[in-house]
Amino acid sequence: MSKMPKLKIDNSIRALRFEAGEMTQAELANRVGVTRQTIIALEQGKYSPSLELAFRVAQAFGKEIGDVFSCSV
Amino acid sequence: MSKMPKLKIDNSIRALRFEAGEMTQAELANRVGVTRQTIIALEQGKYSPSLELAFRVAQAFGKEIGDVFSCSV
DNA sequence: ACATTATGTAATATATTTCTTACATACATA
DNA sequence: TATGTATGTAAGAAATATATTACATAATGT
Asked: Which residues, if any, are the signal sequence (chains A, B) (predicted)?
């Protein structure tokens, strides 16, 4: 397989949390249905989530997926 | 953790391939940088891809990610 | 000083995605 | 009939995402 450069994907979760009335990481994790560790890892860009998780996060903020995650290339 | 129902995510890859001049699965796999099996599995909804792969597929068609993948609910 | 809440780190286990390889089938066409 | 192309299935390995548990720290309020 042709090794393509890894896409850099960033998200605005941290910003959106605080826009949303300072929603805590634990509360977001709760709504999304994942553990707090997963939210922490996402905010820190430790890995790129599954598409399903990305959709859930967007839903939790009432946003489109493209408003939460973007890839810079 | 609260077991949330799995989101049903569907995509328009198959349609987009043929819109894009009948691009073959192999050609798409090539552009996206994955194997043909991955494209087959995606088209068949076998699993939901990583967000990175989703972005790559969208890019391959010159579309927004929301135009290729959608979640019902 | 103590308890609580929010965030963070880290190690290990489990689940899911993606790769690799091999083979099957249908279709076109020389 | 033989050959090439596009699609499909399947099994196991490898990579990556997510869960689980435990503990650390800073800030806040009593």
From this structure: none
Residue numbers of A between 9 and 48 with CB closer than 8 Å to B? 9, 30, 32-35, 48
pTM for this model (two decimals)? 0.92
Gap between the Cα atoms of A55 and B1, Å rounded: 18
Q: What is the pLDDT of residues A24-56, one digit of tens each?
A: 999 999 999 999 999 999 999 998 999 999 999
**What domains can be seen in chain A, in order of their start residue?**
8-63 (1.10.260.40)
Amino acid at B57: V
Cite the DSSP H helix spans in B1-73: 13-19, 25-32, 36-43, 51-61, 65-68
Rounded Cα distance between B47 and A38, Å, is: 20
Q: Cβ separation of B51 and A69 shorter than 8 Å?
A: yes
